[in-house]
Write a structure and sequence with these properties.
By secondary structure, the chain is an alpha+beta fold. The chain is built from 6 helices and 10 strands; from the N terminus they run E-E-H-E-H-E-E-H-H-E-E-E-H-E-H-E. A 10-stranded mixed sheet has the order 1-2-3-10-4-9-8-7-6-5, sandwiched between helices. Strand 7 and strand 8 form a beta hairpin. The longest helix has 15 residues. It is elongated, with a radius of gyration of 19 Å. The two termini are about 25 Å apart.
């Protein structure tokens, strides 16, 4: 809408239910905000504007604050690298399961051990199954038939490898499992021609940040959300 992209996926995650504001071609900002708010209200969803350094128009943030929008309780850092020559030692105890789609076993692991898991995970499963990008991979790591970690990787046609759903069983942390899963995903992408890698991490997730920095991933940009609840 006038350069903004409005996303709706049933309320799952801020990124997939927010207004991407890196471009703007309109000439009546308040009218366009009104349209956005009424549109999200039809879906019974709160209105989220994704705010980054590339915000357009620049005065949008001030206008939203005037309207009663509040900052959500987390900020996201996008990290990445254009160097795919990642190296490191794998945990030799791990056995891996690979799949092209999110399996029930993968979903069950997330439901059991991910603090971010909700009943809306079924929508996330549907989204991944509908991805038109043909190159995607779901990996489970196992020790003695116990699932101890997961990761998802998606490779787009431009050679960009996206990493998500990295979770480790609480009883098996600090054993190089997360590092090993990331390397497996990176090896897969590299073999298919990936030229860069990127992922999202919450700014307060110090353990994840330390892991990604170990892989020489650098901060590319950060963003946050301005949120306003709509009447249902």
């Amino acid at each position: 809408m006038n350069g903004w992209i409005l996303a709706f996926t049933g309320g799952v995650t801020g990124r997939s239910n927010s207004v991407l504001t890196v471009d703007y071609t309109g000439n009546d900002l308040n009218k366009d905000i009104d349209i956005v708010e009424s549109t999200y209200a039809k879906f019974h969803l709160p209105v989220r504007f994704k705010i980054s350094d590339c915000l357009e128009p620049p005065e949008l943030e001030v206008e939203l604050l005037k309207r009663g929008y509040i900052y959500s309780d987390y900020s996201i850092i996008t990290m990445g690298s254009n160097d795919m020559s990642m190296k490191g030692e794998l945990n030799e105890k791990l056995v891996y399961k690979f799949a092209n789609d999110q399996t029930p076993e993968f979903s069950h692991f997330l439901k059991t051990f991910s603090s971010n898991y909700t009943e809306d995970q079924r929508i996330m499963v549907d989204i991944t199954q509908r991805l038109i990008i043909p190159k995607k991979l779901f990996i489970l790591a196992m020790i003695e038939k116990n699932v101890v970690g997961s990761v998802m990787a998606v490779l787009d046609p431009q050679g960009s490898l996206y990493i998500a759903e990295l979770f480790i069983h609480p009883d098996y942390r600090r054993q190089q499992i997360g590092f090993s899963l990331l390397l497996k995903a990176i090896f897969w992408g590299k073999n298919l021609g990936a030229s860069s890698i990127w992922l999202h991490v919450e700014k307060d997730n110090t353990k994840a940040l330390a892991l990604y920095k170990k892989l020489d991933l650098q901060k590319w940009y950060n963003y946050r959300y301005l949120l306003k609840e709509t009447a249902v």
